[in-house]
Structure formats: structure tokens, C-alpha cells
């Protein structure tokens, strides 16, 4: 089909720009798409998309799940393009497509795996028209961006194409109701033996039935509102197609059609279980065999920008992305910290770098984050870095944490100098995604410990 001349100009102009930016050792993952969408706003709808288009969205876990899916498909012979190193909004996705398409807008690779920011769904999904959409969950996020789960639900719900097959979290009574006329497959996690669920969260994003408004009765919750519930009106959590029944020996035991399937876990946290079963559910529903997926999953690792570990000066150091301004994600890391064994120290660098440059941070989210999880006697120090360190100090004091344990410093990279190694066995760093530069500096300082 003949395309507008502006589309061809956009493709050619972007390819020249990408080449020049790379010669200058600049990141070309967003700017080319941003400029070409200004030049031609209808750009995205004119690509001849690859044979398989998979979109992954959701509040938490979408980067990990999209990377897992990409690795599984590559391990099984699919030639993919993905935005694992680029933006997940319309400009980043446009840059990815412009970089990989032919001059006529087609693709030589057979599969696209696109991480899509849920807020950007209206500017992406109707145009790339994914064959599959995986939604990890919908939970409370940044007040500045996402406002409320119903707001994000409505954006997604009104922009999912009719042809798109859905892979949904059946334990999330919000996202599991997306595009109810579309074909769907549900994943979830049953009540686990020896599980100690997190029932003391400040946030539970759905407490009333979405049909009649009466209070929901939860059979169990793993954390926040993620679990199984029903209402007296007949509404209930959906039947689960891929149901995790156990987590043992670093494996997820999943029941599907009455058969037991086992997959290696990158980590044993409940969020890692959900990410794993989401990727497995897509891959099996997509058509790969149990053996194909299990073999690929045996080699999957969580990207180091999400979770990392190393030793420094005889101490174990764990690094976990806390996703600043997201109270659910930060609470999950605080829960992880309190469950870790041994005496612990915590470094917190949670300020959004871009806020200091472009806007001002709304700190209300820190009062929805479960910092109360950090008041155990086994947490010996909490070092807070950044210009808002005093605000975090106030919140930690409200949480009941002993002031003697807390140190505030204005410069994030100064945080290691305040550690007292004789007090702890394990150091845990929780950081915002936009603070990677500070994190890398802290890592280098720690690796020089003796």
C-alpha cells in the first residue's frame, strides 16, 4: 500500500540521524522518534509490522517480563527486535521501529517485543496493533504521572485492538478485567505452603466489588490487592490457566491443564514468581512447548538494572531497583529487606534525577510507602542520600525507626562513607532507576573496601 511521502522522509531522516548520533557515541533510543513524530504525528500507523507483535505493559514488572519473553523467543529461533535498551513510550518505540525497518517501512525480522508504558498506550497500541498484550498488573504508581489505577485502566481498556490476545494477571482484580471481549489467558499464584504473605501494606487498591460495590471477601492476598477474592453478588477472581502451586528448589511449579510444569526462577521473591509465570504463560500460549520454554528459562537472568549482588570487604551487597515515586514497588523492596536474614544496613537513593532538572517531586507517595517494614532490630543503619534526605528522615521517624540508626547526607555518592561495617553482615541498596550514575559510583566505592 502506498504511503505518504512524509513517512518515507521520516524513515530516511531518522536513519541518518541515528547513524550520526552513534558516530558521536550518543544514545539514539529516543530523540529520532521524538523528532519524527513531531514532523509526522501519524508515523506509527504506517509501518508494516513484523509477523508477530507482542506488547508488554503494566505498572510493575514489564521490563523484566519483556526481557524474559525476548530471551525465550530468541532461544527458540525467533529473530526479534525489542526496546530493552530504549524508551517504552511512543518516541522510544518510534525510534526502535525507524532504526530496524527498511526504507519502505517493512521489517526483515519476524517478531517485535515491545515494552509499552501503560500511560502511553493510547499513542502506541492502536497503531502498532499488537497480536498479543501481556499485562503484569495495575497498581498505584506515581501521582504525577498515573494518578489512579482506574485512570490507567481506562486508558488501556479503550485502546486495546479487538484482534489482540491478552495474557493477564488473574490475581489482579483490576487488570484482569481489561478488554473483556478479547480472548485471554490468565496466570496467577495459589496460596503457597510456608508463605508468609504481606498483609500489613498501607495500600490495597481494590477493596470493593467492581460490579455491585460491596466489600470483597479475599480468600488470600500475597501483597497489596494481589490475591483471590469473591463477592456475594457472584463476582470473583477468574479461573487461572497457569497457576503457580509451589516455589521450591529455585523452581516455580506451575499447573496447566492438569499437568505439572517446572521452570527455573531467577529469584524467589513473590514478584519474581509473578514475572516468571507471566513470561511462561505467554510463551506456552504463543505455541512453544514446555520443553522449549523450560530450557530457555534455565538460562534467563534478571537484568542487573533491576537486581544485582556482589561481595565487598567480606560483606554481601544486594542492589534492588525501588522505582521511586511508586509506593507499591518501593514497599516491595522494603518487604524484601525485612525478610533478608542477618544484621543489615540500607542505603536509600530514591530521588528522581529528572525532577531536579525539569519539575518538582510530589513527596506524598513516601507516606503511602511501607517504610514501617524497616524498623526491625536487625536493621542497624539506614543511610539516606539526596536533596530530600530530610523528608525521608521525617517519614522514617513516623514509621517508628530509631533516629540513631538514620544518617542523612545531601550527596547520594557520599552515602558509603557513613556506613559502619562492624554493625552489619549485609548491605542492601534501594535506588531509583534514574539514579544509575550515583549507584555506579557507590558500587565502585564499595568494591574498594578492604
**What pattern of helices and strands is seen along the backbone?**
HHEHEHEHEHEEEEEEEHHEEHEHEHEEH
End-to-end distance: 65 Å
The structural class is alpha/beta
Largest sheet: 9 strands, mixed
Low-confidence stretches: none
The helix content, as a percent range, equals 25-40%
| Bulk shape | globular
Round the Cα radius of gyration to an integer and report it. Answer: 22 Å
The side-by-side strand order for the widest beta sheet comes to 2-3-1-4-5-6-9-10-11
Average pLDDT for all residues: 93
Total helices: the number is: 12
Determine the oligomeric state from the structure. single chain
Relative strand content:
15-25%
* Total E-strand runs: 17
Plain-language structure description:
The radius of gyration is 22 Å and the shape is globular. The chain is α/β, with parallel strands linked by helices and 450 residues long. α2 packs across α4 and α3 packs across α8. Helix content is 30%, strand content 21%. The longest helix has 19 residues. The protein is built from 12 helices and 17 strands. A 9-stranded mixed β-sheet has the order 2-3-1-4-5-6-9-10-11, sandwiched between helices. The protein has a 6-stranded mixed β-sheet with strand order 12-13-17-14-15-16, with helices on both faces. The termini are far apart.
Amino acid at each position: 500500500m502506498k504511503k505518504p511521502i512524509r513517512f518515507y522522509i521520516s524513515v530516511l531522516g531518522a536513519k541518518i540521524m541515528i547513524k550520526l548520533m552513534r558516530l558521536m557515541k550518543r544514545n539514539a533510543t529516543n530523540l529520532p522518534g521524538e523528532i519524527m513524530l513531531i514532523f509526522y504525528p501519524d508515523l506509527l500507523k504506517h509501518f508494516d509490522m513484523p509477523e508477530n507483535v507482542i506488547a508488554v505493559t503494566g505498572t510493575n514488572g514489564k521490563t523484566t517480563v519483556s526481557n524474559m519473553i525476548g530471551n525465550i523467543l530468541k532461544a527458540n529461533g525467533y529473530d526479534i527486535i525489542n526496546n530493552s535498551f530504549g524508551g517504552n513510550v511512543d518516541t522510544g518505540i518510534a525510534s526502535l521501529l525507524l532504526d530496524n525497518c527498511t526504507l519502505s517501512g517493512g521489517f526483515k525480522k519476524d517478531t517485535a517485543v515491545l515494552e509499552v508504558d501503560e500511560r502511553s498506550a493510547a499513542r502506541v497500541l492502536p497503531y502498532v496493533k499488537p497480536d498479543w498484550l501481556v499485562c503484569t498488573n495495575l497498581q498505584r504508581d506515581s501521582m504525577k504521572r498515573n494518578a489512579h489505577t482506574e485512570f490507567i485502566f481506562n486508558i488501556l481498556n479503550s485502546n486495546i485492538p479487538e484482534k489482540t490476545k491478552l495474557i493477564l494477571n488473574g490475581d489482579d482484580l483490576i487488570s484482569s478485567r481489561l478488554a473483556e471481549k478479547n480472548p485471554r489467558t490468565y496466570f496467577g499464584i495459589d496460596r503457597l505452603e510456608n508463605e508468609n504473605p504481606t498483609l500489613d501494606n498501607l495500600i490495597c487498591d481494590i477493596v470493593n466489588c467492581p460490579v455491585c460495590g460491596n466489600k470483597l471477601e479475599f480468600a488470600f492476598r500475597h501483597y497489596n490487592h494481589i490475591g483471590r477474592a469473591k463477592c456475594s453478588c457472584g463476582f470473583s477472581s477468574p479461573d487461572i490457566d497457569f497457576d503457580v502451586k509451589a516455589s521450591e528448589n529455585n523452581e516455580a511449579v506451575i499447573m496447566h491443564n492438569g499437568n505439572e510444569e517446572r521452570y527455573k526462577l531467577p529469584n524467589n521473591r513473590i514478584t519474581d514468581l509473578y514475572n516468571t509465570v507471566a513470561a511462561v504463560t505467554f510463551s506456552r500460549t504463543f505455541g512453544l512447548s514446555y520443553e522449549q520454554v523450560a530450557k530457555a528459562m534455565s538460562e534467563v537472568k534478571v537484568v542487573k538494572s533491576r537486581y544485582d549482588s556482589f561481595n565487598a570487604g567480606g560483606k554481601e551487597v544486594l542492589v534492588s531497583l525501588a522505582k521511586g515515586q511508586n509506593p507499591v514497588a518501593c514497599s516491595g523492596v522494603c518487604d524484601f529487606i525485612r525478610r533478608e536474614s542477618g544484621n543489615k544496613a540500607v542505603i536509600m537513593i530514591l530521588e528522581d534525577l529528572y525532577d531536579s532538572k525539569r519539575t518538582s517531586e510530589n513527596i506524598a507517595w513516601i507516606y503511602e510507602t511501607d517504610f514501617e517494614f524497616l524498623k526491625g532490630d536487625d536493621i542497624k543503619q539506614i543511610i539516606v542520600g539526596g536533596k530530600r534526605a530530610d523528608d525521608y528522615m521525617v517519614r522514617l521517624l513516623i514509621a517508628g525507626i530509631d533516629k540513631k540508626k538514620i544518617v542523612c547526607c545531601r550527596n547520594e555518592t557520599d552515602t558509603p562513607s557513613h556506613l559502619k561495617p562492624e554493625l552489619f553482615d549485609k548491605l542492601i541498596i534501594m535506588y531509583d532507576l534514574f539514579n544509575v550514575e550515583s549507584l555506579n559510583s557507590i558500587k565502585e566505592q564499595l568494591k574498594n573496601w578492604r
